[in-house]
Amino acid sequence: MLACEHAMSELQRFSVAMPEDLLMQFDNLVARRGLAKNRSEVIRDLVRDALVDEEWDDSDSEIVGTLTIVFNHHASDLQNKLDQVQHSAHDKIISAMHIHLDAHNCLEVIVMRGRSADVRAIAEAILGVKGVKHGRLTATTTGRFL
Ligand code: NI
Q: How far is the CA of 79 from the centre of ligand 1 (A)?
């Protein structure tokens, strides 16, 4: 297993009580996550998810976010404006990937790292550029506390 064993402390056991119907739904969720996951692993995933959400809610936490956008590069001045926003945030943007989807449409994935408030503000500025057809910010973590 290629787990991050160096970061994992010893496992502690605890018991969880929950209503039977909730437990049934939980077991269905475990089953949907596949054979490699058991109840304990899914509970750990859910706890980490909650901690990452909390981290994002704290505007000063250092977080990682990826913004995916789709736009038509023919739209007047759009690429220029997107570049302008990204250049002014160069210290928070770790990487950006541009894919030409077809003759007209482009997709960009912009990976950011910084204070949660700053990353949100950059994402809002990019999503606010006229001509961006679709965009979604995915909140994740530097991983250092999980
Ligand atoms: Ni393109």
A: 9
pTM, entire model: 0.82
**What tens digit of pLDDT does each residue of 34-61 get?**
888 899 999 999 999 999 999 999 999 9
Task: Determine what percent of the chain is predicted with pLDDT higher than 70.
Answer: 95
Ligand 1 centroid distance, CA of 107 (Å): 7
The strands making up 132-140's β-sheet, listed across from edge to edge, are 93-100, 105-115, 62-72, 132-140
CA of 81 to the centre of ligand 1 (A): 14
Residue 145 lies in a domain: no
User: If you average pLDDT over every residue of the chain, what do you get?
Assistant: 92
Q: Are residues 52 and 111 in the same domain?
A: no
For the chain, give the longest Cα–Cα distance.
60
Asked if residue 135 and residue 75 are part of one domain, the reply reads yes
Instruction: For residues 68 and 135, state if they share a domain.
Output: yes
Does residue 81 sit within a domain?
Answer: yes
3-state secondary structure of 12: coil
95 CA from centroid of ligand 1 (Å): 16
